[in-house]
Amino acid sequence: MKMFYSNESHFLVNNVKNIIEAQDIKVFIKNEFAQGAIGEISAFDSWPELWVFDDSDFDHAVEIVKSSQAVIQAVDWTCKNCSETNDASFEICWNCQRGNS
Questions:
Q1: Hey, which end of the chain has fewer CB within 10 Å, N or C?
Q2: Are 39 and 64 found together in one domain?
Q3: Domain count of the chain?
Q4: Strands 27-30 and 49-52: what pairing?
């Protein structure tokens, strides 16, 4: 067993766990309830950790985490129908509801 991800946020750890398990990799969370022990142990030692059961899945799990956290550099676009500028996250124009194509 190897640890491949840790974060102070339980939400983010569980989100990564779900992403990894969707790829049929068996993982478990260690220190899931350790935050109540802060003071007896250091804050960093209480962070939840994701571990793979099978060491052969370690590299694949790390790659999945890296790709899921990569920042996608998208640019704003101008609608060909109405010439309105739209945020890169929009798939359709907010003004005329035409697609970005």
A1: C
A2: yes
A3: 2
A4: antiparallel
Same domain, yes or no: 63 and 84: no
In tens, the pLDDT along 11-50 reads 999 999 999 999 999 999 998 876 666 667 676 678 999 9
SS (H, E, C) 22-61: CCCCCEEEECCCHHHHECCECCHHHCCEEEECCHHHHHHH
- The tens digit of pLDDT for each residue in 73-90 reads 788 999 999 999 999 889
**Cα distances (angstroms) measured from residue 2 to each of 18, 51, 64, 67, 82:** 17, 5, 15, 19, 54
pTM for the predicted model, two decimal places: 0.65
> Under DSSP, is residue 63 helix (H, G, I), strand (E, B) or coil?
helix
Total residues belonging to the chain: 101
